Amino acid sequence: MHDDGGGQRDGAVVRDALGVGIAVGLSGFAFGVTSAGSGLTLLQTCALSLLVFTGASQFALVGALAAGGGPFTAAAGAFFLGVRNAFYGLRLSELLALPRAVRPFAAQWVIDETTAVSLAQPTRRAARLGFVVTGLSLYLLWNLTTLLGALGAEALGDTDAWGLDAAGPAVFLALLAPMLRTGTERAVAGLAVLLGLGLLPVLPAGVPVLVAALAAPAVLWARGRRNTPRGDAPGEER
């Protein structure tokens, strides 16, 4: 039987997808600990991972609640972080071209990791395989480790006494740092940190996160002003 290398290519896609799914899925431990430490019950913690399934938004939600923020403020911050998945979905919808009956279920797995693995593939077949393997492995492991982390936090009691309250922010930063590849992205992240930390003492819990979201349009506006030729400035005669 002639082997055109398709099996080897599929194996490479599966290996890479599993690597991403396992590496990121293990951070569900940190979410489970953080969520339980913020006062959410075991059922609420597991429901967040089962239904929301986007790590950054989940960490933002429980972080705001742990800081004393109201549920609506916490949910708003998580929502803004999750909006990016809608844009991922637009790109993946064209790339994967999944049947209509499958799309509502596939939408649950449209996150940073599945998007990155899918877009890295040379063919639609490989993109679909990468999406499914990454999504399935990450979803199963994330939910399992969320459960184990929450159970462990309940058994330990006060997570602050063990320093486990820092686990969530540490994992969030570890996931975010590799994504900051350009100067603009680093500028947005830096300004967001300054806004969030600077306003933390003067605004209610959870609100500084929302204000920090203004970092992106502010940096883009400043960059546009800098790149605009002087002769194109409004009201300036040529």
From TrEMBL:
Its main location: membrane. This is Branched-chain amino acid ABC transporter permease. PANTHER family: INNER MEMBRANE PROTEIN YGAZ (PTHR34979:SF1). GO terms for cellular component: plasma membrane. The chain crosses the membrane at residues 12-33, 129-150, 162-180, 187-220. GO terms for biological process: L-valine transmembrane transport. It is found in: Cell membrane. It holds the Pfam family AzlC. Keywords: Cell membrane, Membrane, Transmembrane, Transmembrane helix, Transport. The keyword Amino-acid biosynthesis does not apply. It is a multi-pass membrane protein. The keyword NAD does not apply. Belongs to the AzlC family. InterPro entries: Brnchd-chn_aa_trnsp_permease.
